[in-house]
Amino acid sequence: MKSILLIFTLFLSCNSQKIAEIKKQQPLKEISVVDKNGLLEVKGNKIVNKNGKEVSFAGNSMFWSNDYYRGNGFYNKQVVKHLKENWKAEIIRVPMTADPEIHDSYIFDKETNQSKLETLVDACIDLGLYVIIDWHSHNAHDTEKEAITFFTEMAKKYGKYPNVIYEIYNEPLKVSWDDVVKPYSEKVVAAIRKIDPDNIIVVGTPHWSQDVDKASLNPIVGYKNIAYTLHFYAASHKEWLINKAQKALDNGLALIVTEWGSVEADGGGEVDATSTQIWMDFMKKNKLTHCNWSINNKDEGASALKPNTNMDGNWTDKDLTVSGKLAKGYIQNW
Ligand code: MG
Fold first, then answer.
1. How many domains does the chain have?
2. CA gap 32, 326 in Å, rounded
3. How far is ligand 1, taken at its centre, from the CA of residue 167, in Å?
4. Domain range spanning residue 146?
5. Which residues, by Cβ under 5 Å, contact ligand 1, an ion?
6. What pLDDT digit, counting tens, does each position of 215-233 carry?
7. Could you tell me the CATH number of the domain that includes residue 65?
8. pLDDT tens for each residue of 103-146
9. Per the domain annotation, does 319 fall within a domain?
10. Active site residues
C-alpha cells in the first residue's frame, strides 16, 4: 500500500512540474488595444468602446498611397510594427490616393493603390491596431461612383473586423456642406451600411475638414456610428478653429482628428510647439482620437522622418525630424 502511495505522489509531482514547464514556455498572449476595446461606437459627441467607456486613441497617418509621391515605400508591416512598439501608436490611418487630379491615383490605377492600402490594413488587423481607411481626395464628390465601388469592397472585406474605421472624404475644398458634401456622404454611407451595419464612418467637412460647425447645423441622420472629420495644422490654425470644433461638439457631433500637424497647413514651415500643446489639451479634454501627418521622409516640415531615412521601420530618434519627435512624444504618452 505504501509503495503504491509513493508512486502516486511521484506521478503527481512530476506532472505538476511538467505543467509548470509548459506554462513557462508559452508566452502570455498579448492583449491588443482592439482586444481590449473592441468595436467602437459613437455615443453623443464621444467615441465609446465595447463596454460603453469613453475612449480616444493616438497614432500616425501614412502619406498618400500612389507611387509618384513615393510615400508608399513605408506601406509595409515592419513600419506598422515599429510604430506600435516604439511610438505606442494605437491607430494608423491609410490614405488611398483617390484625387481625380493625380495621374496615378485610384481613379487611374485602382490595382496598385488598393493593394498598397490592403497590405497596411491587413498589417494593422494582424497587429491589433485600429485602422482608418481614408478616401484621400479633395474632390471626392466628382468620383462618387468610384468611392462607392471602393467602400463597398472594403465593407465586404473588412466590415467584420472591429479594427476598421471608414473615412469617406479626406478634405473637401471650398464647397457647400448642405449641397455637395452632405449629399455625397449620404450616398457613400448608404452603400457601406448596406453591407456593414456598425463600424464607424468619418465624414469630411468643407474647407479642408475645418467646417465641422457647419456640418453640426445639418448633420446626417438615420444612421448610427457617424463621426465627423476635423483637421488642424497648429502653426496655421489657432483659437478660431478650436472655437469651430467646440461649437460642433456642443451641437452634439462626435469628431475624429484623422490628420493633424504641428507645422503650417501646407505641410511646410516650422513647428509651433505652443499651439500644438493647446490643441493637445483640447483633444485630451474632449477625448478626440488623432493621427499625426505623416510617416514619410519627404523634405518638408510635416514629415516625421528626415530625408533618406530607410523605409523598413528600423529607426532611432536620430532619424526623426523636429515635428516627428514632437508627435512621437504625444503619441507615446497619450
Ligand atoms: Mg462591422
1. 1
2. 25
3. 14
4. 34-332
5. 159, 196, 198-199
6. 999 999 999 999 999 999 9
7. 3.20.20.80
8. 999 999 999 999 999 999 999 999 999 999 999 999 999 999 99
9. yes
10. 171, 259
